Fold each of these.
Amino acid sequence: MSDQQLVAILPHILLSALILIQMMVIAFARNLVTTVVISIIALVLTGLAFIPVHSLIPIVVTPLIVLDGYAIFYSGLILMSATAVTLMAYDYFKDREERQDEFFMLLLLATLGALILVCSSHFASLILGLELLGVSLYTMISYPRKGLLTLEAALKYLILSGVSSTFILFGAALIYAISGSLGFAELATIGSAENGTGELFLTAGSALIFGGIMFKLSLTPFHMWTPDVYEGAPAPVTAFVATVSKGAIFAISLRLFTSSGLIETSSILTGLSIVAILSMLAGNLLALKQDNVKRILAYSSIAHLGYLMVAFIAAGMVGGKVLAFEASSYFLFAYFITTLGAFGVVTIVSLRDHEKDAGDISNYEGLFWHRPLLAIMFTLTLLSLAGIPLTVGFIGKFYIFTAGVTTTLWLLLLTVIAGSGIGLFYYLRIIFAMTKRTDASVSEIEIPLAGGCAVAAISAAMLLFGIYPAPVINLINNLIA
Amino acid sequence: MQLVALISVLFIGGLVAWLAERRNHDWPKWVSLITILLSALLMIPLFSLEPTSVPLGAATSQWLLVYEAPWIPRFGISFLLGMDGLSLLMVALTLFLGLVALASSWNEIDHQPGFFQFNLMWTLAGVTGVFVALDLFLFFFFWEVMLIPMYFLIAIWGHENKAYASMKFFLFTQISGLFMLLSILAFVFAAADLTGNFTFNYFDLVGLNLDPDLAWWLMLGFFVAFVVKLPGFPFHTWLPDAHTQAPTAASVLLAGILLKTGAYGLIRFTVPLFPEAAMEIAQVAMLLGAIGVVYGAIMAFAQDDFKRLVAYSSVSHMGFVLIGIFAWRELTLQGSVMQMVAHGLSTAALFMIAGALQHRLHTRDVSEMGGLWKDMPRMGAIAMFFIIASLGMPGLGNFVGEFMILMGTFQVNVPITVFASLGLIVAAVYSLVAMQRVFQGAPTADRNLQDFDLREVATMVLMMLGLVYLGVHPQPVFDMVEPALTSLYQLTGPMHEWVGAAR
């Protein structure tokens, strides 16, 4: 391994080392503040370690890992969300369970898994990253051991995630059986030469892999676990599942399917389109009847992944690849900060009640008059989810439209419109509840320092990049195009 | 730069008004007043500007001001604002009615006045932006920005059924807006195929030779968004609910200026960008307009709720505007603009009267009113004036607009003209019946009501003077918008003739 390659994976090495240090510190001197500070330092240092990598890209480190602009962009997003989740989790856990320190270690481990995932170029590293992320998440979800909902959520996630991992493994095995290779790039050369049985194996293999991915991305018809896990998991963990976990898995599937050329098969594209349409409709329609904000956000995230699939499909169409990468990156950026903002507010509202997170919509009534700042931030995130201008969500949706228009995916775009229309109902319902004139107990909510700063920074970013998106667009173009 | 300042003042004023509430409950409305006056002050020098010529497709257009700054260079999106006579007139109307809305809500809002004024100012800012934006992306941006504060105005300060009404308003306009966004993007990408680079710039997009089938679909996306906002039959159903449930100030803004953004969009974008496609749909659009005129009038006649009555009369009057735009004659275009201004004034006044009645009687039900002239002679007389104006009495602005539209349309399509004229008769019936039921006859109860005070009378008199001026001396308005309309007209020519000749 050359020096350059070593520098290229320095972020991962650094993070692993810091996780070990954190473990030692927890073992010898248990202190929540110290643990959190180490977490933050680890995340920041890892982020800084990507700076020297930037001048080396693209660089291949062993057949398993490739570091390119794409990997760096998503690593940045993951580190940003992990930092925000750490701050929220500190507020969330500081007054609860007796021993919270290990949670932050698990969070770093999951982050490491996600970081490996986005730069893997081989099925071995993909599975490694996936499981590192998944196993840490099972524990994180069930971390507050006392709640029944929490246990239900953790068990559901454990079983379904395990099943979906086996799908991916089996799919990889089928592809390996015919191609003799586990690297993504080699598949491209082999895939096009195959016909007959070989093609069948390839299609079946990629269908299985995508089935597994659909579980993890909560796309319809494999979305059943989402509302329960979102509702049961502690709010910061839900934020982590919704952003880091889904984002990293989406990033790697887009890389896998485009660099191996698997996506260009027409049967796969048809299947993906059906999944996208179903997710947009099911996500939005099922959210209508919910009274629980966390469940609404769960269904809304199903719909959002459906919108994102439009860009995914565009990547497989003729001439759509460049714009599709750009579009999905911006959309995910928007989705990350919006979702973090939403769960940040849910976390803050949940702080009063140690038994149960503030799910029910009535917990938010009158928020506008008693805690205006919090309500404005929540309104912004909801408007951003709905894709209304002035917020970053609008630019994200704009990008989805551009990706769809260049590749003439009219049916999918009409579904996006229908879905956005239905979506307004439940987003506006929450906003309307916040504007109710009640003397509700929301006045007791106190805004904590760490989480409050995180949510405020996220809201500011949401407005700034909604009004002036050029910096992020340039960044994406520099790194990815 | 003046245009940027004009919009920013309103945006910033809204924020300041919101913050001012912390100091004093009464400050927000004063901040709003200062904000509107300040932006009006910024507008005054614009009236005396000399226009400069900018090529627009095959024609030349006259612009008082054009401002451009880069915004999202990746897609050729710029912060492009422009003002010609048409925009200037519309912005002036916006600010004036903003003042009226402020006056109408002066003592009405006890709950969260800061946030109320914030929404009021941001609605004005959004609408002003719509009237001056010349980049399609920017236009869409403002188009959506004006919705959210209006949603809040209805959802928070509205009446008994506000949740339903505000949701319906938002859904209708937002979904139709997304169709427009889809059209804008498909248009820009099709244009990029022709010209080789991405641009959302209005000047670059006018006059392109698009594939006719594609152009038809693109036109439809714009058409739907604008006709929903106008509102044209059969997309009008959000309007009676939204108007009825909205607080007075929001009704004034909705009827007075938000509806006009739809008409403005048709004139500025739909027809000039896709002339051939627009003319294919022109007969249908005129028919929808005529149905709207008659249907709105009949529905208005059947209402017991005073605000609903005025709302349906809006549907009727805006039907004339739709006819006028799609008849696409210089005469009918000028008539449509006149109708927009006059309707803005007369309907704003009627909503203010409706609001004043509700404030005093706590009901909007006409059957519970009657004989109110006795208690409130000033309000009665003023209402009489605006009802007469709204039914199209010669000598007042509304008459000029409707007459010119009908006269011009007569050369294009006689049956539609005849049919639409029937609306004038029904208008006289419902207006006078409403007047009679509310203000005349024997009082149904012994009330002790407070008549219009000085603030209300002053606002009303301003609007009355405006309508009389428009009615007897409309020429300055025509002179103001003439260069803008002429350049648009040059772009397409008298299209109904060449459509006829081609068949």
Amino acid sequence: MKKSKLVIFILILITFNFTSCSSQDVQTPTKDEIVHQEDVADDDFDDFEEEMEVKEIYDPFMSYNRSMTNFNDGLYENFFKPVNKGYLAITNSEVRVSINNFFKNIYFPMRFFNNILQGKFHYAFEETGRFVVNSTAGCLGFFDPAKSKMKLMPHNEDFGQTLGFYGVGPGPHIVIPLFGPSNMRDAISFFPDAAVSPIDYTDRDWPTLTKTWFELIAVKSVEKFNEVSLYSTEYEEIRKDAVDLYPYLRDLYEQKRAKEIEE
Amino acid sequence: MNLRRLFIKILLVTCMFTFSTNLFANEQEDLKAHFLEELSDIIKIIEDKQLSKDRRNSKIVAELTPMFDFKLMAKLSLGKRTWLKLSKENQKKFVTSYVERMKNSYSSKIDSYENEEIKITDVKRKKSRISLETEIATAEKNLKVVYKFYKPKKRKKDKDIWLIYDVEIIGISILKADKAQFKEFLRTKSINDLMKALAKKQTT
């Protein structure tokens, strides 16, 4: 009996401790405590050191990458930005979103195959549902009723993510003219993804959107301009946040890709 | 008698367990409620069309300041090794310039995203960290933004209980991105150059 009383006593003590802990949080600290906090502040580091570890990015082509980033940035500033201004003036937001929806929809084969390759069959299934619904009820993909009405979510996967999924590292970072930051793995992956792209002019067993290379460039340009119109604000914000544009863009890209592969 | 004792013990243990998990859940709920409250205050400021842009942004920054641990962010953006190498004076100067840039960067983002709708999609807890996952919906796209909170061992002056130490936008940690670019910058240039570069960005 004595023993059990002791156990109960300890338990009550622990419970009280919990309550006192939580009420302590609400109290405002005294001045001494704040001063103390400032002194030991450097201890904070250790809690975050692991979480905030930044991976060194393999970058043997740094000088090329740097000049290509400057070239792309110049292209944006002197060409895309003024053209975009005109584009924004003649289109409204609904049109831009619809065009974006249309392109996203026709890239369905890429997402389908890459989801399958990664064994994400339920996503591949969901993507198929989206393609069927949006291509019909969504007027050739210009609208996205699959998401807004049926809660079918997109699962974007490309071949670079598939390779990453199977443990292929990013390789050296490469900045591609016009397209911006990339790496060896993702740049190579462009080819298998293009092979299932419906925008192509080479002979295929299935219908493609374009017949000649001229048409291909025309369609790709529309896609690119529309993309610029949707993301120019982000790009300009990034430019403002960067103390040095190239390494900043490089790191943002690699971080984003690593996250996408992780998911 | 033995059975009764056992029963009491089990009862107490379960009581304690539910109590402590409740405490955990409550903290998350409190944080979520607090965040939403702040958000609605900020939206009120944005909707007040009589305020000038500068006045509005400074009001928003004042609203946000207790939620962020800017000083910690400034320190983490340099990393422990670099931070400890700085003189006390430079540490202070760096924190000021980093915080200024942070505030300006937020103001500029607020300017570029009007008519946005923000909703909390998930709250996750991992020991002394809570991440609040939100989605910002504009007319053109959805942006996933995660606010990462930590709880300082002692509450800081003029600050909330849980403080934001990092923000993740579409999977990119702004703190990590800054850490990487500062590290690269400092490879060839000095801390004074970095502070100058941060200040220059504010004026443009």
